[in-house]
Write a structure and sequence with these properties.
It is globular and about 40 Å long. About 10% of the residues lie in helices and about 30% in strands. It has one domain: Peptide methionine sulfoxide reductase (Metal Binding Protein, Guanine Nucleotide Exchange Factor, Chain A, Beta Complex), CATH 2.170.150. It contains two helices and nine strands. The strands form two sheets. Strands 3-4-8-7-6-5 form a six-stranded antiparallel beta sheet, with no helix packed on it. Strands 2-1-9 form a three-stranded antiparallel beta sheet, with no helix packed on it.
Amino acid sequence: MADPKKLTEEEWSEKLSPESFRVLRQKGTEISHSGKYNEHFATGIYNCAGCNTPLFDSDQKFNAGCGWPSFDGELTEAGIEQKTDHTHGMVRTEILCGNCGGHLGHIFNDGPSETGLRYCVNSVSLSFEKKGEGVKG
């Protein structure tokens, strides 16, 4: 794959589904409780749907009841970037894939584990790879 930070929006549009493009490249949000990974608890790695960078381990996932996949941490190598987001009359912290810059969701300081974090992520921003099988889904 070409350097994902150098792809044009037209190239991203051709590579991604319309919904993944809307969320990853246009900073959209999928409808609460609609994503395929919201209630998904298989063992494996959650990757960026845009560039396949590993982002989260299934051990970091928990059911926050918010309607989006939630994680209490990220993989060390993920390099997730954080950016202040002032949209919709709120001040939040947006999370972006460190490799391709794709919008993943937001991070909050209300997580239930010792990290105190909740990475609230859109399912369409993710792909999943089962541990030990190399199978994506």
